[in-house]
Amino acid sequence: MAESTPVLDFDGWSCPVPLRDSPTIVMGHGGGGQLSAELVQHLFVPAFGSQGDAGTADSAVFELGGARLAFSTDTFVVRPLFFPGGSIGDLAVNGTANDIAMSGAMPSHLSCGFILEEGTELSVLGRIAEDMGAAARRAGVAIVTGDTKVVDAGHGDQVYVNTAGVGLIPDGVDIRPQRAAVGDVIIVSGAIGVHGIAIMSVREGLEFGTEIRTDTACLYPLVAAMLAVTADIHVLRDPTRGGVATSLNEIASAARVGVRLTEKALPVPPEVRNACALLGLDPLYVANEGKLLAFVPREQAEAVLAAMRAHPLGEQATVIGECVDEHRAMVVATTTFGGTRVVDVPIGEQLPRIC
After folding, report:
1. What is the mean pLDDT of residues 98-121?
2. Which of 11, 15, 100, 202 has a CB 3.0–4.6 Å from the CB of 167, allowing a cystine?
3. If we measure between CA atoms, which residue out of 70, 75, 69, 67 comes closest to residue 91?
4. Is residue 246 within 8 Å of 239, Cβ to Cβ?
5. What pTM, to 2 d.p., does this model score?
6. What is the per-residue pLDDT across 137-154, written as a single tens digit (0 to 9) for each?
7. Could you tell me the residue ranges of all domains in the chain?
8. Cα–Cα distance measured from residue 155 to residue 117, given in angstroms and rounded to the nearest whole number
9. b/e string for 79-96 if b means 16 or more Cβ within 10 A?
10. Domain 177-342 sits in which CATH superfamily?
């Protein structure tokens, strides 16, 4: 008896890369890459109206009672909850404080919202709360309001945290992605890719010969030291989801300038480079939680760099590139072999749920 020809169920096939026309939410929609941008621009902004389009800055800037405020919110779904050097608790405080600081504002007040899965041990929640309180004290911010919700067992992953916050922007400070200009020098405050690899080392049980600890920290003290040199800093950004590459692409697109990186100048620690080689990752796309990118006018760059290196949070600050008139809205890197490669925005995220 002849075998029948199998019927292929194309609708049942799946692809490891998120499909751009997917009718459902995929992990890539939360990764800070192209899918995230499309979700915001094509779903949220039309639904919310013009007020929903806050641009590409880390925080919204608005005036209230004659004061200029920066306002930001972020939700943290990191897995695992605890990792070398930190936890979801201090990450939630530092992450929102840093988004506010990237507008030049001093973070002052935070809210926190918890989504807890039924069955989570109270000792786990207690550790997270203690970490949040300690991080808030170090950052000089007050956690002043919050909310708690509980979901059924199996409908969460122990603890999710949302934080929102506000800060006051000093007079004369205008820091936003649209201000990047041809000739600007691009500085990164230290080693990149550390946080993402710290998470992966725990999540996958990998051994890299040395413990890689997260770089999570509140960056406002470093920002204040930079502003003490000059208020004319064009752009600040903490390269979290999507890493340095995604942040630079967003800034280049917002300001319509080209960005040229020098690949050999990128401060990638050997342990991060080795881990990325093992995992097939590019350090430019790995998240950071205690580093910032600064676009500074060339005539101010040397003084700003010196101020950064004099601060504990910027001791390893280095120049990694510049804004150019060519290839506007694109980021390219000069390789160690003298060639040039395009540094594009990823569709999703190399490492999901790391912040």
Report:
1. 98
2. 100
3. 75
4. yes
5. 0.88
6. 999 999 999 999 999 999
7. 57-168, 177-342
8. 7
9. eebebebbbbbbbbbbbb
10. PurM-like C-terminal domain (3.90.650.10)
Q: For residue 354, is it left (φ>0), alpha (ψ between -120 and 50) or beta?
A: alpha
Residue 63 tokens read as 């005036």
Which residue's entry shows tokens 């902004």? 45
By C-alpha distance, which of 121, 58, 128, 125 is closest to 92? 128
Number of residues that this document lists for the chain: 355
- Model confidence pLDDT, tens digit, residues 215-271: 999 999 999 999 999 999 999 999 998 899 999 999 999 999 999 999 999 999 999
Please tell me which of 10-19, 197-206, 208-217, 251-260 the model is most confident about, judged by mean pLDDT: 251-260
